[in-house]
Amino acid sequence: QLQFVESGGGLVQPGGSLRLSCVPSGFTLLQHPIGWFRQAPGKDYEGVACISSTGENANYLDSVEGRFTISRDDAKSTAYLQMENLKTEDTAVYYCVAVRQTWQALCELTPDFSSWGQGTQVTVFS
Question: What does the pLDDT look like over 21-65, one tens digit per residue?
């Protein structure tokens, strides 16, 4: 299964920003649709954002739409999640995985052929 290494988390106050990075472990990012998920304490994994293999399409959880932006740089084999205007409810461990994609190249917030890595902790505190 595919696995990724996440970084960039930290402590931030409400309204602050963070940029998370994700690199694949032992393979390249090319042709893989990528998604960011999060898990808050005591809760299930939640899909936050995904980007298609070409980078042309993205999909977001309603609660982060307009605040988070997913992107990819295949030359650097890195995916990013830019998070703006962070809220306390965004506090969670964030993970990067490969996700499913339709034949129309629309990504889906469903993990595919991936295992959860160590993630990166994002804590938003007031």
Answer: 999 988 877 789 999 999 999 999 999 999 999 999 999 999 999
- pLDDT digit string, tens, across residues 72-106: 999 999 999 999 999 999 999 999 999 999 999 89
Q: What are the backbone angles phi and psi of residue 81, rounded to the nearest 5°?
A: -135, 105
Joined together, the tokens standing for residue 4 give 């990724």
E-only strand ranges, 1-126 = 4-7, 10-12, 18-24, 34-39, 46-51, 58-60, 68-73, 78-83, 92-101, 107-111, 120-124
**CA–CA separation, 33 and 96 (whole Å):** 11
Distance between CA atoms of residues 44 and 28, nearest Å: 28
Task: Compute φ and ψ for 90, nearest 5 degrees.
Answer: -85, -5
- Amino acid letter at 19? R
